[in-house]
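S.,

As promised, the magnesium ion run. Input:
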Amino acid sequence: MTIVEPDGAAVLELIDVSKAFGTVQALSGVSLKLVAGQVHCLAGENGAGKSTLIKILTGALHRDSGRLEIDSEPVTTATPSVLRAAGVQAVYQELSLLPHLSVAENVFMGRLPSRSGLVRAGELRDRCRVALDDLGLVEVDPSATVEHLPAATKQLVEVAKVATADRVKVIVFDEPTTALTEAESDRLLEQIRRFRAAGVAILYITHRLEEMFAIGDWVTVLRDGELSQSGPLSDYTEDTLITAMVGRDVTALYPDEEREERSERLTVTGLRRTPDSPPIDLVARGGEILGIGGLLGSGRSELLLNIFGSDPITAGEIRVDGRVVRPDGPGP
Ligand SMILES: Nc1ncnc2c1ncn2[C@@H]1O[C@H](COP(=O)(O)OP(=O)(O)O)[C@@H](O)[C@H]1O
Ligand SMILES: [Mg+2]
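Predicted complex:
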């Protein structure tokens, strides 16, 4: 077990923090240091304490003991508004946008440009246009109503809201790519790299290992509410990271098992997303869990959208229990 802290001055530091919910010790004696211009990944199995840690760090939950410091100054009353004002921003998986309002109103919520109590719509739109362009979101219309936007765009609007906050020193991302395709995730990761280049300290939580390796500089692994390991991501492989998370060897995770072979439930033959994409065949039998692997951007999520019928295919056949089904593409 090795715990190494990143070099450099801490922008935000948690020191020996503990938190219990009744008899469940969600965090015990956890320390974490975030430095400017670094993406710090937080890893751990479900229930390891990741969300509890970030809720303490953003003021949504109160710690039982331990310290929280920003720029080496102790934060005594850690409420969400105190921490936001100090520059600690968060992007959650569950979005905080108001669906019936426009993109611009959401991005500048709570700080709309106004005169004599009236919102200056033109100025609001212009400022939002600049903010969206800065983030490379040139195709997003500031006047569009949020509820009609695709999930990925909503997530990016959420990022725009954080990026335009008055102070941005730390941004916490809690599983922001869960609902995104690989291409959409790539775009978000690109955005995070820009924040890093601008000197923001980033805490990044994802259950996608390859994403940690794509974006992370440092990793801290929690196990059962305790610090398991911490160090540069370049010191880890997927196997050693998994071992740190689960506490046993990876080989022990997949013991040989005898099972009877059942009939084919889902059969995909020669499926092509576009005329140029390679044909894909796969079979899932009853009682089987079929895993689909691949790197970021390799088309895993897109394949599932094709099989599910939400995206059209250009060639191939999908059978369920032997009967051909014809997905018609997205509904009206
Ligand atoms: N509000 C809560 N009330 C009771 N137990 C909780 C609460 N939030 C989290 N826990 C428990 O604390 C532990 C850590 O949870 P969590 O921080 O959500 O882990 P993770 O985000 O790593 O999956 C789990 O055992 C979870 O059941
Ligand atoms: Mg969680």
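The domain at 10-250 is CATH 3.40.50.300 (Rossmann fold). The pocket of adenosine-5'-diphosphate (ligand 1) is lined by residues 21, 24, 26, 44, 46-52 (CB under 6 Å).

- D.
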